[in-house]
Amino acid sequence: MTAPQYTPVTEPLPLARELIAAASVSRDSNAAAASVCEAALLAAGFTLERGVYRDARGVEKVNLLARLGPDPSPDRPGFVWLGHTDVVPANDWTGPGGAFEPTVTDDRLYGRGACDMKGPVACAIAAAARLHAASQQPGGEPLTAPLWIGLTADEEIGFEGAKELVTRSTAYPELRQANPPGIIGEPTSLTAVHAHKGSHLLTATARGVAGHSSTTDGVNANLKLLPFLTDLLPLIRRTETDPALQNPTFDPPGLSWNLTLSDGGTVLNITPERATATIYSRPVPGVDDGPLVARFHALAAEHGLESTDDRHAGPFRTHPNAAYPVSVRRLLNQSEPRTVCYGTDGGVFAGPTDRGGGGLTNLLVLGPGDIAQAHTAAEFITLDQLARGCDLYETLFRRYCL
């Protein structure tokens, strides 16, 4: 059987449009978007591993890990570009066209994922296609080091695709062993980011008994939660004020312990049987939040509550003065190192291997598009950012792979 033939895509806009049209909201499968990427990567000469898994609801998800060029060597480890193909919901879309109907107007590409991050994905694949096309020309330069492109699912809901990739992919160990410099392609307006916060979910649950509020048959779970909240407040305030829990290179510098409450109740004359207090924490590089988390669980136990702990991903940091970050900032004419408070798959890919992380220690977050546009009701990326992003990635790919 003859393998399918694909036309290489060397400009990002057509591919970005095709990806936006392949709807891949995280609650649904990303298989259609992954297939678009797979075809484009194969056309660009990559060999590819397609990893399929099912999420907690049984929905099929697809990861891709592709490689172009020769095997890595100690002195030529290559380069890696990492991104995701899932997007957030678009139920409130107000932009031109539909959320999954890519529309170009006023030098902008609109659509869900245009900025976060189907635009950047298109830039990376198109840049790689240019590199491969040039190498195939008479007198063209062959790659002397490998280029990897990794694309995950479920980045928007707990980084589950990245976790699957680093723990279950048969192709990933080679990448981990090579440990090349690389990019997490989230939108940064094409500035280099060397560190971001992590993602950590803490939950305390009170159990009551449902009953009609006109009787004494019920036990209100909210009332069981109140004493715990009283004791928890000083702990939250400490995260805002204790210098030991701050990293001044971030704004805000702390762990951002955001408290939300829920009892699931919709009927006012029924006592709620379950109430939860949830802390969404953003761990900061260089700060040990272990004692703080232990105190959260201890307080929950003291008040007879159940507690859970789900560390989605740790913080991400590459030393800003290492050779690779410095060289990229010089290329960008960027004078100062930069950090951001949002998270990426970098917390997984750069995480220590003894905690299930990917062990890649030489990464930066760097992508086209303004993060202020991500997840918005009229998400867009400018055509200028698309063009410049593709050119920048091509420059980096050439620098480290030719």
TrEMBL record:
It holds the Pfam family M20_dimer. Keywords: Cobalt, Hydrolase, Metal-binding. It is an enzyme of class 3 (hydrolase). Residues 195-306 form the Peptidase M20 dimerisation domain. InterPro entries: Bact_exopeptidase_dim_dom (IPR036264), Peptidase_M20 (IPR002933), Peptidase_M20_dimer (IPR011650), Peptidase_M20A (IPR050072). Its EC number is 3.5.1.16. GO terms for molecular function: acetylornithine deacetylase activity. SUPFAM superfamilies: Bacterial exopeptidase dimerisation domain, Zn-dependent exopeptidases. The keyword Thylakoid does not apply. It comes from the Bacteria. Transmembrane segments: none annotated. PANTHER family: ACETYLORNITHINE DEACETYLASE, N-ACETYL-L-CITRULLINE DEACETYLASE. This is Acetylornithine deacetylase. It comes from Alienimonas chondri. The gene is argE.
